[in-house]
Protein 1
Amino acid sequence: MPMTLIYFLRDALREATSGGRKYHLWMGALTLVMLTGAYAYSIQFREGLGVTGMTDHVSWGLYISNFTFLVGVAAAAVMLVMPAYILHDVDFKRAVMLGEGVAVSAVVMCLCFVMADMGGPHRGWHLIPVIGYFNWPQSMLTWDVIVLNGYLALNLLIPFYILFSHYRNRDPNPTLYVPFVILSVFWAVSIHLVTAFLYAGLVARPFWNSALMGPRFLASAFAAGPALILLALAVIRSQTSFAIEDTTIRKLSLVITVAAQINLIMLGCEVFKEFYWPSEHSASAVYLFFGHHGHHALNPWIWTSIAMNVVATGIMTVHSARRCHHLLYPACVLLFTAIWIEKGMGLIVPGFIPSPLGELVEYMPTWIEVAVTLGIWATGLFVFTVLVRVALPIELGRLRAPGTNR
Amino acid sequence: MSGGAKAWFQSWLRKWNGPAGGCGAGLLSKSIGRRDALKMLGGGAAASGAVVNAFAPVNLLSGSSEEREKAVIDWKEFFKTNYRLMNDRERADTIERLERKYKLERNLDVKISTAGPLPNVLYGYAFNLSKCKGYRECIRACIQENNQDRASNMQYIRIFEKPMGSMSVESGDARYYHEVPAEGHFYMGTQCFQCDNPPCVRVCPTGATWKEQDGIVVIDYDWCIGCRYCQAACPYWARRFNWKEPTVPNEEVNPNQHYLGNRLRKKGVMEKCTYCIQRTRQGRLPACAEACPTGARTFGNLLDPGSEIRYILAHKKVFRLKEDLNTEPKFWYYMD
């Protein structure tokens, strides 16, 4: 068994580093973007966070926006996990491993974004329990540390156990892993709720201090996450011999559609609450949608997001349109982008504008922030590609431990 | 290395290699209600000490003696624990290191105090809206007293110019550049209100900020990881972040400092008004109250029935900002 593990790691490394011209070009391009991000981060680390567009007024920006969005993407793996492992939906079973790959990559990106946003990342050990001071349960951020790292562990261990079993040509033992799968389903919901509570618990920010925050996070995540997984499946279907059935795509697109519809209803609820009787607490919403005292920086973002959201949800709501892949895939891209904007420029940034003392300072990310952000996204794609690259040959039965029957 | 410095360094090293002091008696000036965490931290501190000891010789092998001394100080500083969890000796050690560090790095002589809260003292502040004329002398005094970053023009206090007839936060303008007092306007100062129920303290993931016995909300600048969650949580926009390395010219540095107050900060950490903890714990007024030319600012002990602040609370119609949030600020506004 220890020898098999070494063989596994060796074979995994070989699979991840060998491939055709296209594959190397893809990985090379990602590496280039990652290196650019690393360079930008080195400047930020040396000079301080002053090289970003953030200020004492808008003290969280692009990094925390992406973090928030990606927690949702990570949580969305559950939309594949639950039907596949618990309801034994065979259509989803082939796709679930990829969903978990998306979850792992997304959590890795989340952790990177949090690190990038910290003023003293080298002092990060201060919040490690036992050697540091872990302000739990008071601080929601400590809850987030627990749930995100736990979720990462679950999504690494479950697929690893299954893949390793297949590698050894054995059937994984359900009594060993199904309890963890059930746990991971609840855990997925918790990571996004806890992240929502991180903001919803702040009385200083009326724009976030809303009970709808948690549910809306779940709805938008269960639209954006599966949309990304669906696009990944589409790419894998066209680029590899791994068969993804049409029914899988169809079921997944139905999940996305329902979540996107609920998300739009919740948007309507929020808009109604803020604008039926706009109080001083609605200032952020007024600024976001229409501008406030001559400041309009976020208006194009939110209206673009809403337009994309409505068009994508519209396409997916019509059965015939959703079944046509030429419409479905662009709709998924639109939806994913719309929700990315919604969670960042449409939620995190306007929460700071105006300030609790009514001062209005706008925010625009700098090239360093953009480069670091792109670098972290490239890291996520890199991790995902490697995971898929190793998982696929095992699932296809092509890669097996030496000495086992094929 | 001069003889004196060398002797100091050797005595310091001896202390360093001496028996590892756990977190024993006299550990806390106040209960933090987390005995378990405390015990664990005792173990953690000892472990980190071992790591430093393992690495210090590497740093001692290269560079000039001063560089070596600085390297050792930096290592020890990096692995020190949260101020609240330090015992008296650990506190004395870090003060000694910090004072030495400024001497070595900037040729600066500073005195850092660790004075604890005075018994039977709870600080409170009152602001007379009828008297403030918007001169902002308080801001100037605050910057000088608290060694705030000159490059970014960091200010803890904001004076809002508001048109008569509205108390809404939105009506204020803190960026006025004209002769004051302006016709038809009044002036309202804000700073950290040292809430009795501070949201910033609850959200801090590392316990780097807390409320002291005398009611002052403080930050351990060396324990803060710079996540800025407290900045998002403060309903009064009282917290500031060091977006770059803060700069104060040597000749402008106030050398009378407190560990939890105006000692020099570094990039990537939070800071805020502490009611001038370095002054008030010596029985002096905060710099802003002392500098105010109009008598708009009253500072005092809420537990002393004879204090001026108690007189104001008893005889004036006072209010606090956003009382509906249950933050219980210890900063009251009133009018004559």
Protein 2
Amino acid sequence: MKDVYLGMPSFPEAARTATKDERLRANLTRATHTIRDKRAKAVTEIEDWAELVEAGKAIKDHTLRHLDEYLLQLEAKVTEAGGQVHWARDAAEANRIVAGLVKAADGGGDQIREVVKVKSMATQEIGLNEALAAEGVAAYETDLAELIVQLGDDLPSHILVPAIHRNRTEIRDIFRANMARYGRPAPEGLTDAPADLAEAARLHLREKFLRAKVAVSGANFMIAETGTLVVLESEGNGRMCLTLPETLISVVGIEKVIPSFRDLEVFLQLLPRSSTAERMNPYTTMWTGTAAGDGPRTFHLVLLDNGRTDTLADTVGRQALRCIRCSACLNVCPVYERAGGHAYGSAYPGPIGAILSPQLRGTASEIDASLPYASSLCGACFEACPVAIDIPEVLVHLRARVADAEPGHRAERAAMQAATYAMTHPAAYRAAEAAAIKARRLLPPDRKLPLGPAKAWTETRDLPELPKQTFRQWWKENHR
Amino acid sequence: MTETTGSARSATSAREEILRRVRRALADVPRGERSEVDRDYLAVHGARSAGENIDLLAENLAEYRAHVHRSGEAEIAVTVARLLAERGSRSAAVPGGLPEDWLTRVPPEVTLIHDSPDLTAQRLDAVHSVISGCALAIAETGTIVLDGGPGQGRRLLTLVPDHHICVVRVPEQIVGSVPQAFAVGALVPTRPQTWIAGPSATSDIELDRVEGVHGPRILDVVLLGAA
């Protein structure tokens, strides 16, 4: 299986390639617009959306500001409930811990050669599958889209629907060609009807669920008060992984903790509506340590830092840690729509990736230094965010950091390339403006850029003012 | 054994170091800061009678492609038998604590398999159906919560078979909204929970919703008491 994003070209370079791929663009456009429209409906259905967003933001901020206390509480509760808690400073440490736990899972017999996995951003971030492969352990993704990506020897392109860049015929071809290599082959005469493709995945994966000894998951939330972990999903592959194997290993970023069980009443309204545009996702599993006679007998929680504490140290940038991985910002982003997820060069594509990756990884590499420029600052992402992350604010802040770190040509070049990209893609620009104007009502009237380290930038560069008319209308009227 | 000691020391220091990093990162947070979260959101969306909650639950479940049936206490055994027959079921798993009078009309050709420790996932894979109760149901979102209580059993029982008949006692097991499901006493947080809103589904292929990937592909919900 292909390795992750090493040696990725910088965003403008990768985006230039992606925007020339017409099929990718068509798939992305259809997909992002479909989700976007459905989501708008799911959100307007409840009249207290704004209050829920405010509460979600407040709960996350509160937790982050007392993160050490909540992590200790969580650790105590998970341990009390029969789980074992491990701490990982970085990706390599997390991978080492998980590989060790897998190998020890059969009592040290070292016979475990495969694990089943629930879609997890954190394990993708740390390249766990590749690390396990190096130890001779195959990690089977069981989310349908992740399966498509894995069988296609490909990289995910969207947080929620990682195979959004593939259409049904491509998926059928991938299944036909590659399922047999990893287990039960695709049924004879497999068509490209989505129901048939789902059936093929069901049969292929059931064999793996039934024999799996070890599962690896992430989690959407961890509840400090009770030690409960929560996974939201649609297909039932999560339930399979979280229920059937004897050993469960969950790798979770430290920012996923929330204080109380009751806090879920906010996030179980925000996340499904914002993510899949559903009132509720088909399945949610909650487990607390181990339960006698029900589910895994051994539970390990690996708490992952990997740049999160660096992000937390930045008083402007730390709001990115509120993210609940809904992917709404991707679907409204004109740059993402044109460039696709791969151009962002990390597990986190789209606007959230543009502020998360350079904070988790630092801005030393070309790709990470260019990510804060992968935006027209239109603000549609901010408007869509269910925990009110001010992505444009953080983007501008990070641009200042990149410029400060290397005042020479590189930052300027990245900026110019990104600007050129937006200007030469009028449809993207138009969509951005239209979205931004819709977003007006949620923004404070005098939207000032933050000063401080970014001062050099902000004195001469304001955020788009969100005019009553679009830039194009204005241009038409003033540049005859 | 030096290796064990070494990794143990490294584990301790990872914990200490992450906590130290967190505290250093939060240097700007005043000591002893305590903030209250404003919960200005609604406890429930709209005022509904118990009957209206039942209707809304039924409507929302149906929208997510669950099959909803209403049954009085007197007809529950007939209803369960009919649903098994309609799906051509030959075997059904039965969790401990399921009311026996729900099963009195199950035809002899359907084998009832009562839960026991040796009922493994591999064995369940050959079982067609499962019949369960629930802990509660949420009208606004069309969600059913299972918590492993009597009549629900271990999580794998309601996961591996392809057909799930789930009985909700109405109106007593219905709450109106998600926040009401989190009201004190409604659920025990530390029990293993499964929240179900319609059958297994995916939209991973060109965003076309397809019912049924890994969980039960057919979900029959019986609203008991709503005949």
